[in-house]
Design a protein that fits this description.
This protein has 414 residues and is mainly alpha-helical. Helix 2 runs antiparallel to helix 13 and helix 11 runs antiparallel to helix 12. The longest helix is centred in the middle third of the chain and has 30 residues. The protein is built from 14 helices and no strands. The relative contact order is 0.11. The termini are far apart. It has three domains: 131 residues; 115 residues, no CATH class; 148 residues, no CATH class. The structure holds protoporphyrin IX containing FE.
Length: 414
């Protein structure tokens, strides 16, 4: 059975299962209301739990496991992991009690913790290791989450005008997550999808030229990040359609550029295909919200269910199996992917039907919730035996080196 020390070395072992528990609570909210077990519902409770707890748990689990290995730095300390778990628990309790500002404060605390965690690891990295250029998006993501949380608190307490809430809410509920995805998936997806893997040097590029390419890429990501930030201000002014169209253009443009999204992935592995599909569904949801702003929330669930949930379950399976020394199983048909595909497909269809058949709005939300719960709980049952079993120290080093090699494969940049 895993011990605290194993959890510190690989925080995903506790944070991934916890993410699913939070996801079940956030989605189960609609089932409880549809069945009459709850007298009222709160869209804000649902949205805040899904983003601040369910998705943030996945992100923290991934980054707190991967960053120390990639930067050859110390794993999470007792304080760091303890604080992350404490803030996540306190946030969920505050949301349950509808103490919104306390919950937003906890999320802001978590983001500061993640920023400090990442900053300390990168400061300690060997000089020869340059962070990927796509990571420019991570400060933008944290800025969206942090500034959005603070502005929400100011808006809800009446200090800032109410239009600020209209800007701050999507900054937290979309900007933070999309920014992390643009940074982390923007770097990982081309490698996992088998894009060209030639080293720049082997193509006859001088070190000076490689540096110039790197600086140009950083500038372009930075510029795209500024436009992305501006879309939240535009949404706050009430120009919802243009805001989403611009956000969709930045998101799609980035993935066409970094990952050649228009080309299907080269490896046949199911998780890679699902990762590719999830990026397409996020782009489709953002374009849809821009084209028909009346159906904005429905379109956004293409992003949330088809994008965020599908991506976390697909990439999460890769992380869990790789760290269990069973990466070869990713090439075999796995029952868990069938459950996830059917569950999320059903949830998406029912979520759309809820909007198209407003007389049965809440019953359809209940059906969508049941489908999501089947996918989430199925995934939890699949991963639990792997996350609960620690690796022997020699296997630990080998498995991490393999995972690092797979993800840090150099690719040709232009
Ligand atoms: C099948 C499950 C789901 C159902 C039935 C559902 C239902 C809903 C409904 C009815 C709303 C509107 C709430 C309101 O009145 O304000 C909403 C909003 C929201 N949901 Fe979900 N949802 C589901 C899954 C998810 C997932 C998986 C995520 C995130 C990963 C998510 C994130 C959000 C967010 C962020 C909002 C706020 C959107 C906005 O107003 O900008 N939902 N959801």
């Amino acid at each position: 059975m895993v011990q605290w020390g194993d959890l510190r070395r690989e925080p995903f072992r506790v944070l991934f299962p916890l993410a699913v528990v939070f996801g079940c609570a956030g989605v189960g909210h609609w089932l409880g209301y549809a069945l009459g077990w709850r007298e009222s519902y709160s869209g804000f409770y649902h949205a805040s739990l899904q983003v601040g707890a369910y998705m943030t748990c996945f992100i923290a689990g991934f980054l707190m496991t991967a960053l120390p290995r990639f930067a050859a730095a110390q794993p999470a300390s007792n304080l760091e992991l303890g604080l992350a778990l404490g803030l996540l628990g306190m946030q969920a309790a505050a949301l349950w009690e509808q103490r919104w500002m306390l919950a937003e404060g906890c999320l802001a605390g978590l983001l500061v913790l993640l920023a400090v965690f990442a900053g300390r690891r990168f400061a300690a990295k060997p000089a020869s290791v340059a962070p990927p250029t796509e990571f420019v998006w991570i400060p933008f993501a944290i800025l969206c989450g942090l500034a959005g949380s603070v502005l929400l608190i100011l808006g809800q307490s009446g200090i800032a005008p109410s239009w600020v809430i209209g800007m701050a809410r999507p900054m937290v509920q979309q900007g933070f997550l999309l920014g992390i995805i643009l940074g982390v998936a923007g770097f990982m997806a081309p490698r996992l999808m088998g894009r060209e893997t030639l080293r720049a040097a082997t193509l006859g590029v001088t070190p000076g030229r490689a540096q110039a390419i790197r600086r140009r890429r950083i500038r372009l990501h930075g510029l795209a990040g500024l436009v992305f930030l501006a879309t939240f201000w535009i949404e706050g002014t009430g120009a919802v359609g243009p805001a989403y169209l611009l956000r969709a253009a930045v998101f799609t443009g980035e993935f066409l550029w970094t990952s050649q999204l228009h080309r299907p992935p080269a490896p046949p592995d199911r998780y890679v295909r699902l990762l590719w599909l999830s990026i397409w569904l996020m782009a489709a949801g953002l374009w849809g919200a821009g084209i028909v702003p009346r159906f904005r929330v429905m379109m956004l669930h293409l992003v949330f269910l088809g994008g965020f949930s599908l991506m976390t379950f697909a990439v999460g399976t890769m992380v869990v199996l790789s760290h269990a020394g069973e990466a070869h199983r990713l090439r075999q048909p796995l029952w868990v992917f069938r459950v996830v595909e059917a569950g999320l497909g059903g949830a998406l269809a029912a979520r759309v039907l809820a909007e198209l058949a407003p007389t049965a709005f809440f019953p359809w939300l209940g059906v969508a919730a049941v489908c999501w719960l089947a996918a989430g709980l199925g995934w939890l049952v699949f991963i639990l035996p792997y996350v609960a079993r620690p690796l022997a120290p020699d296997a630990f080093e080998r498995v991490h080196e393999e995972a690092k090699r797979r993800l840090l494969r150099p690719i040709r940049v232009s």
